Amino acid sequence: MLQDQQILRIPGPSPIPPSVQRAMSQPMIGHRGQETSAMLQTISSKLKKVLGTSQDVLILTGSGTSGLEAAVVNIVQPNEEVLILISGAFGERFAKICDAYSIKTHQIDVEWGQAINPQDVKKYLKDHPEIKTVFSTYCETSTGILNPIKEISEAVHEASEALFVVDGVSCVGGVETKMDDWGIDVMVTGSQKAFMLPAGLAFIAVSEKAWNKIKTNSRPRFYFDLVKYKDNILKDTTPFTPALSLIFGLEQVLNLMEKEGLDLVYKRHQLMMNMTRAAFKALDIPLLTSDEFASPTVTAVQPNDFNSEDFRKVLKKQFGLTVAGGQQHLSGKIFRIGHMGYCSPADVLQTISAIEIGLNLVGRKTELGKGTAAAQKIYLEQGVIV
Ligand SMILES: *Cc1c(COP(=O)(O)O)cnc(C)c1O
């Protein structure tokens, strides 16, 4: 097998475009100089479009979870109660962060593979006026669910005065995100998923209403104090040394997104989801999620007649193709295919046809080409560029 070819089809980290890789290898520059300021200025206006906000997008050095923790420590005041909407492992992460700060949490838990129901959120908030902040994941990476975040946001604001904080780490940049229009108060995302970069940057944008709360919040914080980031970005700089190599890469990522056109980026992700789902349906292998709440960035598959761990090993050995396993209680029960960021419909066809071979190798007799044909058909129906 070709040793240095990696076909990385996991929901993050995701492959890096060659031009982004090259951009990241530029020589180091001074972070307080004019070049860095100019770069941050260019990046700033483009990032706002990706998050769908007119607010400044703050850039932290850290993996996605640093952004989640920053949201918690800036937004939640001491003695305040919060509601966490949990549809999988990343909803739980918000709860664990709150636990670490001894914040009292209320939780709405749905079965893994289901989406959060906005009506349940509305009812819960009406019954619990003490709740001041609501946390939710947008794409729940552990199950491949895209929560109806606009509707949940409406429910939060209709039922309460609470702020709404969203973890968009595994989908912003790949699915439409309208932070301002949808009334999201804090939007967090990260670099290694749909943003086509290595891990190491977290992006966070904050509504006017949320800023008012942050400024008066007495909870201690230092590196994660968003006020410092806000004060600095107004002067086109950062409070601490930014991860400049990643910022070089980010500038190029945003160029690529702009050249393709954000609407077409979102369409491509939708298409890759439809192709992937059609393939598994044609192969008669169950999907974990319904079509209605499926994420355009990751698809979870729940086989009932072969072992998903053996299957993953075969794909890795034969093709250098990595798909992800399940998390926690779904470990060994599902596998997950990432189709986000630097991933095209052609990559999806490659993945599906390799999967058909893998299925036969683990003894799951499968007619070759059946899933690939279903994906090809979707491309002809929905993907053709005219
Ligand atoms: C990947 C991911 C994160 C962040 O994880 P890190 O390992 O800290 O980058 C957070 N939320 C979701 C939904 C994710 O998919």
Helix tally?
Answer: 14
Alpha-carbon distance between the two ends: 37 Å
Return residue spans where pLDDT drops below 50 for at least 5 consecutive residues. none
Q: What name does CATH use for the topology of the largest domain?
A: Aspartate Aminotransferase, domain 2
CATH superfamily of the largest domain: Type I PLP-dependent aspartate aminotransferase-like (Major domain)
Structural class: alpha/beta
Q: Give the averaged pLDDT, no decimals.
A: 98
Shape: globular
User: Major sheet, described briefly?
Assistant: 7 strands, mixed
**How do the strands line up in the largest sheet?**
2-10-9-8-5-3-4
Strand content: 15-25%
Task: Walk me through the structure.
The protein has 386 residues and is of the alpha/beta class. It has 2 domains: 7-13 and 261-382, Alpha-Beta Complex (Aspartate Aminotransferase, domain 1); 18-258, Aspartate Aminotransferase, domain 2. It has 14 helices and 13 strands. The strands form 3 sheets. A 7-stranded mixed sheet has the order 2-10-9-8-5-3-4, with helices on both faces. A 4-stranded mixed sheet has the order 1-12-13-11, with helices on one face. Strands 6-7 form a two-stranded antiparallel ribbon. Helix 1 (18-24) runs antiparallel to helix 10 and helix 11 runs antiparallel to helix 14 (370-383). The longest helix has 21 residues, at 262-282. The mean pLDDT is 98. The structure holds pyridoxal-5'-phosphate (PLP). Residues 12, 63-65, 90, 137, 141, 167, 169-170, 190, 199 line the site of pyridoxal-5'-phosphate. Its cofactor is pyridoxal 5'-phosphate. This is Pyridoxal-phosphate-dependent aminotransferase family protein. GO terms for molecular function: transaminase activity. Residues 28-328 form the Aminotransferase class V domain.
